[in-house]
Queue: 4 jobs
Job 1
Amino acid sequence: MVYTRRMRIRLALAASLATALAGCSSPAETPAPAPAPAAAAPAAARTYLLERVDDAAVVQLYADGFKDLPLNDKRLVYHLTQAAIAGRDIYWDQRYAHGLAMRGVVEQIVTHSAGIDPSTLAEITRYTKLLWLNSGPHNNLTARKFVLACTPEAFAAAAAQAAKNGATFATNAGESLDQMLTRMRPLFFDASVDPMVTQKTPEGGRDILQASANNLYRGVSMADLKGFTERYGLNSRLVKENGRLAEEVYKVGGRYDVQIRAIIGHLEAAQAFATPTMKEALAKLVQWYRTGEDADRKAYDIAWVNDKASPVDTINGFIEVYLDARGVKGSWEALVYYVNRQKTVDIEKLATNAQWFEDRMPWAPEFRKAGVKGITATAIDVVVETGESGPITPVGINLPNDQKVREEHGSKSVSLSNVTEAYDKSTVPEFRKEFAWTPEEAARADKWSAFAGELLTNMHEVIGHASGKNAVADPIKALNPHGSALEEGRADLVGLYFLADPKLAELGILKAEDQAEIVQAEYEAYTKNALVQLRRVRQGTQIEEDHMRNRQMVVRWLMANTKAIETRQRDGKTFYVMVDAKAFREGVGRLLGEVQRIKSTGDAAAARALFEAHGVHFDPKLRDEVVARVERLKLPSYSGFVMPALTAVTDASGAITDVTISYPMDLATQMLAFSKVAAGLK
């Protein structure tokens, strides 16, 4: 039933930046004051990169068009944003059962820090920022646990000092602060305790559920699921109690009742300012939150797809299944955004011509759709993303995931324009030069990377995910644990294949005289990314994240089966060099035909063989070389975003008369504000 549709494409993975880590240098009762939230500066004078935290970059996101929205749209965005913030802690709990408790401890320390040893405080601050960025103690992309680098004794002393300063710690009944810290010590300091949040191919034949530290299951193994039918597959936690399986449903009166009631309250307030079609969709979303029933989820999906013209929209609910090694349980997320009319023109051209592309897909005719229905495609500017979507964000999304809804009612594709812009503006030239074989290649990347990356994102979402006909009802589930990675690879391949088609120039999406250079720049970038992304997996020899697996699979398959890519050495450095664009596209077409066959027929054995050969394993010596190169340049591995902040202006009666937008320019300011909202729900 559930298909993964999110795109954290090369643009997101390649956004690499360099600044020194902004450490905590002077003890105080609360952290040093952050810059006051600022109105948007002129684009040329803006600060995008805010700081580095280990191998993460922190980037400010801007939403320029918000100030020009009509008042009712601003009110709508405000209430939807409050709903997004209210549900944030659901994802934290889904991601790791101890994540919220760990966050509570370190937030109390960093906000009551007077008298704490400066070096200890700096380390706790560093760790807290990583915890915020990754929504828990496991890296968002590698799935591996990260730990505190100070001693447990220094951490305990810091907590004791914070308590003297007025910090309140959520100890268990009858438990002292020291006892709580002793109980939680392995969570903060032992990397071997719950080492992987999601592990789809654990070594030694271990059970994928028991090898994964996420909180989607409790005490359950894959063997326990034989003969068991889940009624609430997407929106429940599955637990084993007294030898029996039970579903804890995410709904009013069920699991996450407090957060869901708060979400509903804001969604209901938003309806007063929504268009009629959006109001209907929001009402059906509320109904699903109340009942948890799949029929209500489907009704919401249909209403959401049918709302094709609202200038403001939201994605809110239990949606993607990347966190689940089985690919069944949905993680909570929320996005709030408005349409960027200027950038929507080109993406709509792809949607309008989706059938043309479908008819020319390089796969067997029996896997082509006779009629591609209802694709709505827009470029958007995001105001807020929480849960699985933020602070680490995708650049493109295609929903709903329900295959039957997609076939009968269509889908929506969105390209996150301001996110793409922020990635591009925060990328330093050294990154492109370091892994380019020639200066000409680096120059092409400088000239075309933003345009080509956004175009590939659009094709991935609009004509990639929406394409193809399947002979099995739920191919992604049939192909798990490789189903999500295969689907992301399939959408990438569609974009790569049609990037070189003259149809794009005919549609006016690009200029014919530029197309060859754009294609070469994107093929080069995609090729390099398979090498550069290894910097993220700094332990072990396997890739776990689906998007990383898909890109590794595509490039390694092309290296093994075509003459499009060469591995070259120079000055002790390895380069992946795209040498033949024609051969690259021809290979992409052949691989795409096979990937579509695998998906359409649910050929799990072929999917496993494809990824085991090309997408999962890598040479650790090559990884170590790449890590050394990026460390020398101080290039980060991933980026997290500080979102715009909205403030409601009210009259004496409490009615909203305006909504202003500002930019926190500081990760801690925003994360602590979000946590304050969560505390108010309890």
Job 2
Amino acid sequence: MRTEKSSKNAIISLVYYAINTVFSFVSKTIFINYLGIEYNGLNSLFLNILGVLNIAELGIGAAVGYSLYKPLAEKDTKKINEILLLYKYIYRCIAIVIFIIGIIITIFINRFVNSNISINEIRIYFIMYLFATITSYLFTFLNVLPLADQRNYFIVRIQGNAKILKTILQFIVIILYKNYYYWLIIEIISNCLMYIYTNIKIKKDYKYYSNEKTLSFLQLLKKYKNIVLKTKDLFFHKIGGLVVNQTDNIIISYFGNLEMVGIYTNYLTIQTLLSGSVEQAFIGITSSIGNLIVEEDNKKVYSVWKELHILTIFLSTIMCFLFYKLANPFIGIWVGKEYIFSKYIVFAIALNIMFKVIKQPIDKFKDAYGIFYDKMAPFIESVINLVVSIILVKNIGVLGVVVGTIVSNIIIIAMWKPYIVFKDGFKIPFVEYIKLNIPYFFLSIITIVISNVLINCTRILEVNNVTDLIIMFIVHGSISVIIATIVFMTNKYFRKTITKYISLLISNIKGIKNNKKA
């Protein structure tokens, strides 16, 4: 049952992610063509600033999800309802905090923006975005229930369809009116309707859910101290992830301009497409990992992690290489050759894609084990990222910001997180992690070298139109996937793992088709 649910979650998450990615690219293309690269940069900057504001969430969602695994497995509806009520109370407080901080930022937002757009106009846009963020905290507390219950597909289907419809409406409005206000109005209204409809469906499916206030906020805080303690630890992890993922555009905007932010965002869109596809699959199986840890021994848990780890090594090798080879040709055709970065920046972003993909199994198992005590790690990660980025951005521009992220990723993502998961989760010496990855590292290098040699032999290295781009994608993609498969198949454990997961995928696709027929 656990395997079926996790597979279903992963498949549906990936399908909707792919569909929404296509719509997102179309929307962004129309956005840039009709409103310009500067508005694209402004929109991305707002998302980053609000990402910083979301620190107020403190990681409570992950702590609540972790706390729901056991009562859901035991069908303890009283405890489930109390935890959800606590979650609702906390999210209301968070909405108030974000509103207050957001208004303060609105006053001083001119310090973050270097643009020709009117500052008063920018303030109005930001307040609208702020309102959209606040409403999410008032409505989304119930989403954690199906997510923790290994039913991520339930949320993905509803919200995936809503996002597709919203995106279509937004680019129609942009084409007809060329107005950013209308784009934001649709964002706010559609999100509110989506959240309300999602809650109605959740309440219908989970009939035992009760909105009755059985205990006060303070009583719930005292009763569920473990959630509060986990939240305190997760707060620091939130800071680390925040600095690494949300401050790049703010630094670039401060030391550069919105146009540079817009160009960088185009590359991040591709990065998100690649790393996000893997992340979506892991979001789909997170609750199943929690259930696995609750019900199985460490030996079984470690075995599952090893399977997922080698698959992410395989995928990250292909993604990193293809991004480096294809990002600039794609950007050149998509928005114009004047918006292309140097190969050094592209290479640095490609390395970060590899880190983002490889970290998924460790991150999800770390959360499922409830290992949040390493509060100094995200602090160190934040300091390293900010210091290196700010020092280097003055000398080498955008490349310096990306290098700052790489340095922090090597220290925390590649070394520290695996160390504590092996030590306190799997109860296995960290040296086993090193020994496990040495052969994987060489497999990746061999794959990249052979693929690059073969691609250079094809001489399909320049792109002048969409047809050339499609041919390049097909040739480069085919060569890298085939070579990666051949090279990794020399590893016995990879052969065993890939055979298992392909069989599982086929059986689940058949199961989904049979359910639809029924």
Job 3
Amino acid sequence: MPFLTLSDASLAFGHVPLLDHADFQLDPGERVALIGRNGTGKSSLLAALAGQGALDDGTVWRQPGARIGYVPQEPPFDPELTVFKAVVAGMGTTSALLAEYHEVSHRLAESDADHEPLLARLHTLQTELEALGAWQFESQAERVIARFSLDPDAKVGSLSGGQKKRLALAQALAVSPDVLLLDEPTNHLDIAAIEWLEDLLIESNVTLLFITHDRRFLDRLATRIVELDRGKLMSCPGSFAEYQKRKAQMLHDEEIANARFDKFLAQEEVWIRKGVEARRTRNEGRVLRLEQLRRDRAARRERQGRVELALDAGEKSGQLVAELQCVTKRFGEKTIVRDFSTRLMRGDKIGLIGPNGAGKTTLLRLILGELQPDEGKVRQGTKVEVAYFDQFRSQLDPEAALIDVISPGSDYVEVAGVKKHVISYLGDFLFAPQRARSPVKSLSGGERNRLLLARLFARPANVLVLDEPTNDLDIETLELLEELLQDYPGTLFLVSHDRAFLDAVVTQTIAAEGDGRWHEYAGGYSDWASYQQQRRAADAADKEVEKQAMRGREGAKPVVEKPRSAPTKLSYKDQRELDALPARIAALEDEQKTLTAKLEDPQLYASDPQAAQGFANRLAGIDEELLILLERWEALEAMLTPR
């Protein structure tokens, strides 16, 4: 029996139908990803299925007795509740008992508490909770609170937006639901928390319906993809890659069918305009068919266009963008950056990885010269023009009109040498002309991100700083943004929890190692994760050898040899040097061949003995350079070879 069924559902905002007689069914054990462009109605559909929103027409059926957890994008909470009370609030009668048990336990720990009545009440609460079998709920609540790094006694009103999202996830997971409805669950979570959430959802075997733009999260969890497109729901069993192939074929078939329809309609319009012939033949059936064709064409909803992204890198910065030498930064007793050195060059695309609160923003501000180190030295390059994308969208005035955000005081913007009217430019980011004077506060989260990108790209910049740019963006826009950033000739700093986005865009990664230590790696997130796995395996092997050696010293014979350690991961600079060595050696060898051929000409010594001597000296220098480069290549390759 299905958990949820949607039948003949219709829902519209204004004149645009978000659901157009749509049907859907969620069966036990499924993990369904609901995808679609921003503004198509995914969140409204999820809310309707959860019983938190109404349909204009149609029905929603929920299996009686099924526990359904729902996490919206912006979860509402009573600001006066503690985190623990908020998490257990969805447990019915049990929630009040658990909340009181938690409070009484804390009061007993106070030295001036009246212990006897508190102990008596604690005993009563324990008896009632045991009768309800509620201890598993308490342990689950405490576990998810701890894993999401929340303080159980903190007031909800004191939490940040990201902490409230983690609180909502904790609340939904604490009741061990049969069905979980999640709206963008990865927003505001760091990578470690996302991977933990993936593992938990897979191991729990909970039935899932979730909205996400995180392709790695989607690929790992989804057993079926459902797309909401122009009011209809299209289902595709299998992975996201399979869905993409099927979708491409469907769009191709739709384009061909629409072209045939339009051609036939045009032919019928020509016929009806002949007037006299149409009246003479009195083909009323053909006239009626034409009227129906016109109605069908008017009702056809075209697929929404793609975002048109263009980025002006402006004037080139100097070759050096920033250099940090033994930089340390503290806030109070906490060291955020400890003895970190790096050299960042024009064209580098750097991803910053680390848990929330590790200091990624602090490190960025040090690199950009916005913050001075307590120790060490920071040197900025020349001609650096920075554009900053703020994940909290603090640059957007909620009362300002869209056109004033993009081009205050002017009707035009100039991007990459092309001058455009601001309304046309907004159209490139899928904002209709009639919305150009709407206030920012009327936009959804995804639309605000698109507006911030439009503002960012309307100004030339040779250094881009993108702090969580992927939040709320649909997958298609994400892929377009990836392509744009891959071709961007300037320098990029990217803070993101989107692993697929990091892999597609960055060339090097700076990762938090704990205790204020940061380390630089070549490649994206997957390269960093692979190195971490290799290092853990090597550490485990070393510990096993130490155990065997200890047993040997205690009289037992060691039975294992030390396994070969994992290959060393080169630093970004070493990897870049290794990648460049073959071309440098080949160039020297080509020069060597050219000089040798010239020196073999006997006329050279008679006509220009001085040039011949210069060629001979250069040839000797090339031999020496080649020897040095070959030795360096051998040393770098040796670092990559397991021992």
Job 4
Amino acid sequence: MSEKKFEIETIRHSLSHVMAAAVMEIFPDTKLGIGPAIDNGFYYDFDTSADKCGNDAEKCRISEDDFQKIEKKMRELINSDLKLERSEISADEAKKMFADQPYKLELVSDFGDEKISTYKLGEFEDLCRGPHVDSTADLKSAGWKLDKIAGAYWKGSEKNPMLTRIYALAFENPEELKKYEVIIQEAEKRDHRKIGQDIDLFSFHPEGPGFVFWHDRGWFIFQKLIEYWREIHRREKYQEVNTPVLLSAELWKTSKHWDNYRDKMFVAKTASDDDFTLGVKPMNCMGGILIYKNKIHSYRELPIKMGEIGLVHRNEGSGELHGLMRLRQFTQDDAHIFCRENQIKEEILKVLQLCFEVYKKFDLEIDHIELSTRPEKSTGSDEAWETAEKTMKEILAENKIEHKINEGDGAFYGPKFDFHLRDAIGRTWQCGTIQLDFAQPENFDLSYIDEKGEKVRPVMIHRVIYGAIERFLGIYLENTAGILPVWLVPTQAIILPISNKHFDYSGEIMAKLETAGIRAEIDDRNESIGKKIREAEMQKIPYMLIIGDKEIIANKVALRKLGAGDKGQVKISEIINEILK
């Protein structure tokens, strides 16, 4: 065992080789895919299908029932102090070495004539660039365990075979692994898909893969988020527009989405005209551009701020879909600001301040802000990109905003700021984004008339604050464990009469709540009061007003608050004032 201190990614990558070696000892006919390190662990892909493993697929079929023996074999390899030995070989040598491994042969072909590196671990040898630990003994102090099995298409394409992916967790020591497992257990309790089902907000159906079906209560919350958005955007002098979901392919070619984003777009054709192609919009900016182009603008009008609650579609792979977090159809709280160059800093700063305000409203902590720079695939001149990136950096410096740089991850038309929010159990999520765009005004020949009566090119600022409203709500549900603030919940108070002789007084209380504008219900079912309380708490209703003989005599209600328990008898006027406040 060496005295070196290894990076966690190196430890995880080395463990993936150990796992592959263990699987090959137990299931020698298995065909190997790839095995990278990932956040919190690693995975390896295996082909266990009959056509790859011979007629008897059981010889290499792996299930979670096999985890115990795979882990046992991995520990044996780790304790054997096996060296991880690097070699460089030619493509021809690699083809001979991996003659019975079709996926490795495909990778070798992808490398062309370049030298290929392999790592040997005992009798097991694999294609790999490294790095790795020196010996399996260097992995003895790591905390790791096999986690789950999932299906994964080879190279991520649905056109390729489905492989068996074994995921594993791995950390520097067992204590870190234990901490992570506690976080995961808490995350499972907070899973927005479970919360959404428990409190009847939404559902998902195989007839609409990647689409959410909103129920009454969930749609109410969704609309309240939009109401709040509209309130603050009216205050900030945004117009609100609405643009079509389908726009011509020619438009998307002009915008360069056809070249840079085509694989994520849905395309529609009419039954009567095969030559007429429409793109289903993956983002809202093109509609705003067409509205801007509809008339001539003076410099006095700028900045023009166009907000749009816009429905967009993106062709996400089936393996990428995840509840509200990753959908094929979602709603962006979009806005596009058309401004002069000397207005860029002021307008972006206003958007930054609006983001800070919204996240504070929802008690969401900003983990970090990221500046993402020019990607490999992009549109626009070098000069425009240099100006845009320089401006974004100056905004951060002049306002002393802490940030990280994410090289090469900007939008294809401009650099961007991304807001990464931290939730209640320490996970981070990217929500808001602000993108500075010199390219699309050029692509669409946008202009305004300046003080001298000459045409000048405006600049576009693209921005969202929620991001996708669906995703924001999913994050917020998990952050709050479904316990939403009173202003946002569909039912703010529920009246729970103990028996039918308490219905009349319950009706009087209901009338007072409704008059005050409070969203209330009466649970007048013939059920025990205990069951009514349990179900109201499962529905995450903040105020439960229990009514029995004593409450009628006292002209009060027995108040129970979600998360705070019984509060004794309280006047209804006090409850109304508290809810309204």
